[in-house]
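Dear Dr. H.,

I hope your travels went smoothly. While you were away I took the liberty of generating a structure for the chain from your last submission, since the lab meeting agenda had it listed for discussion. I wanted you to have the full record in hand beforehand rather than looking at slides cold. The sequence, exactly as received, is reproduced here:
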Amino acid sequence: MSEFNQENQNDQSTSYQDNLEDFAQPPKPANNLALPIVATVLSLITCCGYVSCLGVILGIIAIVFSTQVDSKYALGDYAGAENAAKYAKILSFIAFGTIVISIILVIVSIIMNGGIDTMVERYKETMEQYR
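The corresponding predicted structure, in token form, is as follows:
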């Protein structure tokens, strides 16, 4: 009978330890994988200059950081998972900022060239020169 009690106590202590480990884990940070993917795709679409190309590079780096969140958390590197999630979010927002800057630069260049009609006329003249 005492052997049964001893085995039962060992099983209970193991399950208690497992439960304590579960409580010791902080919650898994969100990897925000969709955010850098959207930022990268939008940067590719608006890739009109160097500013938006920088957004593509930052978006790819943000994707790498966001994919590291789950693996670092699973390995027990909770601080590393939180840092990777933070860096992915920051880089994604910077990539979105480059998209906004790129769009503003395109609008300013259209205005500075006299509008879309003037730009189309210049384009037609240039194309006729090469015929």
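Two observations you may find useful: The CA atoms of residues 2 and 26 lie 38 Å apart. Residues 31-129 form one domain.

With kind regards,
E. W.
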